[in-house]
């Protein structure tokens, strides 16, 4: 029997990562934050001083990443930097990078680590490309202004002094790149349930998600 997969996709700062964590905990499933893979490729290149626009180097970097590298990178605080995020958004448009990371993601979904009974994957193309047969597909979103406000508050919380217009422009640029790229653009799967949480509390979002999950698994 294939292990059930819960695919959670959505744009930056939509709250999909937090939701994925809570859903995985509620179901006792393994969790893979697939954005960390693209961030890991970008961070490795930045540290090696390699130009992020070099598609061949990006593909080679993605191919060379081992499960141990990924585990180490997911604990690296620099993975969360804005420079890493925009680097990730650039390298993620390279078809060779996406192809190199595809097997890792599918393998995680098919064989969740620790023998757990299922997997939650969150990203941009889980329901459309990585796990098109997932029994549960959620597309989590919020208006770009609400997402920029969340990001702004997060940066302030870290003691930074951001400019709201910059944060908003950055969010729009990332949305643009993610939705307009030729390969695996950010788009809801035709059978995804869309949760727009612009006016929802975190608890309402979790309840809505678990309602869908329990109806399908
Ligand atoms: O979700 P997160 O902000 O960590 O993702 C960083 C970048 O990685 C995104 O802007 C997107 O370009 C890319 N990404 C992707 N496909 C995924 C996950 C992330 O293209 N499944």
Q: What does this protein structure show overall?
A:
Keywords: ATP-binding, Cytoplasm, Kinase, Nucleotide-binding, Transferase. Belongs to the cytidylate kinase family. Type 1 subfamily. ATP binds at residues 10-18. The structure is a single chain. The chain is of the alpha/beta class and 217 residues long. It has 2 domains: 1-29 and 117-214, P-loop containing nucleotide triphosphate hydrolases (Rossmann fold); 33-111, no CATH class. It is 56% helix and 11% strand. The protein has helices at residues 16-27, 35-48, 55-64, 67-74, 82-91, 95-110, 126-130, 144-157, 164-180, 202-216; strands spanning 5-9, 30-33, 119-123, 136-141, 193-196. Strands 2-3-1-4-5 form a 5-stranded parallel beta sheet, sandwiched between helices. α1 packs across α10 (202-216), α3 (55-64) packs parallel to α6 and α8 (144-157) crosses α9 (164-180). The radius of gyration is 17 Å and the shape is globular. The structure holds cytidine-5'-monophosphate. Cytidine-5'-monophosphate (C5P) is lined by residues 12, 34-35, 38-39, 85, 88-89, 92, 123-125, 174, 178.
Secondary structure: elements and pairs:
Layout: E1 5-9, H1 16-27, E2 30-33, H2 35-48, H3 55-64, H4 67-74, H5 82-91, H6 95-110, E3 119-123, H7 126-130, E4 136-141, H8 144-157, H9 164-180, E5 193-196, H10 202-216
Parallel strand pairs: 1-3, 1-4, 2-3, 4-5
Features:
single chain, 217 residues, alpha/beta, Rossmann fold, 2 domains, 11% strand, binds cytidine-5'-monophosphate, dCMP kinase activity, CMP kinase activity
| Category by helix and strand content | alpha/beta
Our estimate of the beta-strand percent is: 5-15%
Shape: globular
Proper CATH architecture of the largest domain: 3-Layer(aba) Sandwich
EC number: 2.7.4.25
Main location: cytoplasm
Keywords: ATP-binding, Cytoplasm, Kinase, Nucleotide-binding, Transferase
Binding site for ATP: 10-18
